[in-house]
């Protein structure tokens, strides 16, 4: 049995038309017909029922489709492994990471890791924290770096990093030495609070804010980088993890406002794993030895 026959069969099953199958595979339509006939002869059953310009899977074809996909999947996975070896890699490490973490701590850490571990092939999937647990559970990735802990008992969650949350506003252009102190109550009541840019702390924080400032106005903004842009444009203010605004604070584009009230929550970063394989252990050890402060 030729793998080309199987690939042609799977594409034809998905397209329902031999002409479109030929276009997808960049072959002639007669080639598609030949592949299907050879495969049907090999397995001893008709895989398609033909009607005018369309082809529909027969009952036997529907049963055979899952087997064909599985065989092609094994083949493609084996070729990926061989390609990995040919490039000098010995192992793979698949990481899922939230956009917020990817925009702060990951680039520097990842650069250090791949430099020290040149034989590990690293792939990075950017997923929302709410989706990272599922990706680890389904074994689509080996490790998840998330702003939320896993809920499933069979997954392991470790606290990697705890960051302070601070109140930030746009710079008013006045020198910090001569500027008067910022009135927090006036700041809160005269600006939109840009909320829900972090999945971990906003619900509780918002409850406390509304208790202290009943007239507070809120605007949900789901991404931190958009929140920062809105703040610099004067649209509102927000409570953000310090790591996410470190550069803007240093460059003077944002101001860290002293918060005199109840202690603000922490923004946590978690490592989520399903197995304790050597590649996961090595990466986790590298992360836990890194100083985030």
How would you sum up this structure, described in words?
This protein has about 290 residues and is an alpha/beta fold. The protein has three domains: about 5-75, Orthogonal Bundle (Arc Repressor Mutant, subunit A), CATH 1.10.10.10; about 90-160 and about 270-290, D-Maltodextrin-Binding Protein, domain 2, CATH 3.40.190.10; about 165-265, D-Maltodextrin-Binding Protein, domain 2 (3-Layer(aba) Sandwich). It is about 45% helix and about 25% strand. Strands 3, 4, 5, 6, 7, 8, 9, 10 and 11 form a nine-stranded mixed sheet that branches. Strands 1-2 form a two-stranded antiparallel ribbon. The mean pLDDT is about 85. One of its GO terms (molecular function) is transcription cis-regulatory region binding. Keywords: DNA-binding, Transcription, Transcription regulation. Belongs to the LysR transcriptional regulatory family. InterPro entries: LysR_HTH_N (IPR000847), LysR_subst-bd (IPR005119), WH-like_DNA-bd_sf (IPR036388), WH_DNA-bd_sf (IPR036390).
Q: What's this, in brief?
A:
By secondary structure, the protein is an alpha/beta fold.
**Given the structure, what is the number of helices?**
12
What is the CA-CA span between the terminal residues? 59 Å
Output the CATH topology of the largest domain. Answer: D-Maltodextrin-Binding Protein, domain 2
User: What is the name of the CATH architecture of the largest domain?
Assistant: 3-Layer(aba) Sandwich
The secondary-structure class comes to: alpha/beta
Strand content: 15-25%
Task: Count all strands and give the number.
Answer: 11
CATH C-level category of the largest domain: Alpha Beta
What would you report as the Rg, rounded to the nearest angstrom?
27 Å
Morphology: elongated
Largest sheet report? 9 strands, mixed
Order of helices and strands: HHHEEHEHHEHEEHEHEHEHEEH
**Low-pLDDT sequence parts:** none
Number of domains: 3
What's the pLDDT, averaged over the residues? 86
